[in-house]
Amino acid sequence: MSFTPLSDTPAYKQLQLHQQQMHQQGLEISHLFDQQSDRFTQFSLSAAGVFLDYSKNRITETTKELLCDFARQQQVELQRDAMFSGEKINFTEQRAVLHTALRAPSNTPQRIDGIDINAEVHMVLAQMQAFVEKVHSGVWRGASGLVITDVVNIGIGGSDLGPKMVCQALRSFAHQGIQSHFVSNLDGHALDAVLSQVNPASTLFIISSKTFTTADTMLNAHSARAWFLQHFSAADLSRHFVAVSSNQPAVQAFGIAPENRFGFWDWVGGRYSLWSAIGLPIALSLGFAHFRALLDGAHAMDVHFQQAPIEQNMPILLAMLGIWNRDLLGCGSLSIAAYHHDLRAFPNYLQQLDMESNGKRINHHGQTVDVATGPIIWGDVGTNGQHAYFQHLHQSSDITPVDFIAALRPQHHLAEHQLMLLANCFAQSQALMRGKTAQQVTTEMQTQGMSDEQISLLLPHRIFAGNRPSNTILLDELSPMRLGALIALYEHKVAVQGFFWGINSFDQWGVELGKVLAKAIEGDLHSGTTATSHDSSTAGLIAKVRAAGK
Ligand SMILES: O=P(O)(O)OC[C@H]1O[C@H](O)[C@H](O)[C@@H](O)[C@@H]1O
């Protein structure tokens, strides 16, 4: 089959030409605001309770039209529909991609290989609900009769980042009496820090691993079990250890009874799994009703994503803006600035979602994509970031687009804080967009009575080039419904970008090589011999470990 490199396709060429023309005309975002008084209305929309203002991007109506043409050329809608219909679009692993089915209401049948997955999903949800209610009501107790006060989730990657982020984000909705802990890192300091805080008699461990083979999780799980057995007998394990996994034999081999396993399926990718039983720590932390609300919020975004035309489709628009910034403007990273302290784990969560999905360069034809693919995702909460790396955003030679995220209503009563927080959020995007010209800086310094000498020394340092793009995403409040919709928005954005680039956003071969090499090196460290195949750096580093152990 003949294959046209992306940059040779008509829609891409049109975009390139348009970008060059904008550049030649010296069109800046602030000029576009001056020219069009309703720019905010033109370039903003709401969906599933999420509001997106994308007016502070380097785009015109023509840019948007050309990006929509690009989406049509790349058959983004067709690929979206293939995903929702259960086609095996994760073709390197021959799997469907149906995390959206996890949040669909009951009685919306969907079959994969003849099995009604909607019924299966709701069976597991019912199992989770019953379990959560037993733990919360004290029907489920520890082996010595104490109620459960601490839940320790042991998992990594998708079996950690989503649940951890959601539990933190929605802490104001938490069920009283349950403290959640998350152990992911195989570094013993992580497990040790949690074990030193909890009482084995009132602690429930959730071993979360889709494959139940991930070395990090298995080591932590075995160490947690050994710690528990210092206090209790093997017969007591069933009151304190449950598993979330699609690998029933491995769960059983670990010693967890089948009735203590919450299952899920190979059509749920790890980084898309918080909606499945991997969300058990969320349901235990918040209560099942709030977990259901999270799913409902995501479902509302799913419906919008499936039904809205490209021009008004929030995930598709967000994806297109990302493509514009990445491929046409050459921005290598995207910074996430959440102006909500409880969203401080959101950039971390998005790193896996985006970078594990789109940190690839081979397309469906086995060819290298000839434009840049997934950006680097990084960030922190506002206002902390302002006092750390925002300098770079405003004045460095790199242009980094920013997604500002804020909730209008806080979950606290410190009204003064909220207004100041929002003022800072809006001011940052305004400053990035407007910048400050030499004329403005000079006038300012003259008003301050500075000498000509001082002015000429300071002037270049105090100029802000501006014209730096950002999106602002507003929620009315950070509720389970709205957080669900926000996460689904980013999930779909990432998927759509993969559709544009023609890559498989749902596999992760890139994480395998390091795992295999770690096993070999671990063998060397244990045995005291060093494989001759190692390079001199690796052999030298191994020797350092040995020397330290003597
Ligand atoms: O849930 P598990 O099977 O333990 O996998 C945990 C994580 O580890 C892997 O290395 C993958 O890169 C992740 O996508 C996955 O979420």
TrEMBL record:
It catalyses: alpha-D-glucose 6-phosphate = beta-D-fructose 6-phosphate. It is found in: Cytoplasm. Keywords: Cytoplasm, Gluconeogenesis, Glycolysis, Isomerase. CDD domains: SIS_PGI_1 (cd05015), SIS_PGI_2 (cd05016). The keyword NAD does not apply. The active site is at E356 (proton donor), H387, K515. InterPro entries: G6P_Isomerase, G6P_Isomerase_C, Phosphoglucose_isomerase_CS, SIS_dom_sf, SIS_PGI_1, SIS_PGI_2. The keyword Cytoplasm applies. It comes from the Bacteria. Pathway: Carbohydrate degradation; glycolysis; D-glyceraldehyde 3-phosphate and glycerone phosphate from D-glucose: step 2/4; Carbohydrate biosynthesis; gluconeogenesis. GO terms for biological process: gluconeogenesis; glucose 6-phosphate metabolic process; glycolytic process. Gene3D superfamilies: 1.10.1390.10, Glucose-6-phosphate isomerase like protein, domain 1. One of its GO terms (cellular component) is cytosol. Transmembrane segments: none annotated. One of its GO terms (molecular function) is carbohydrate derivative binding. Its EC number is 5.3.1.9. Catalyzes the reversible isomerization of glucose-6-phosphate to fructose-6-phosphate. Belongs to the GPI family. This is Glucose-6-phosphate isomerase. It comes from Solimicrobium silvestre.
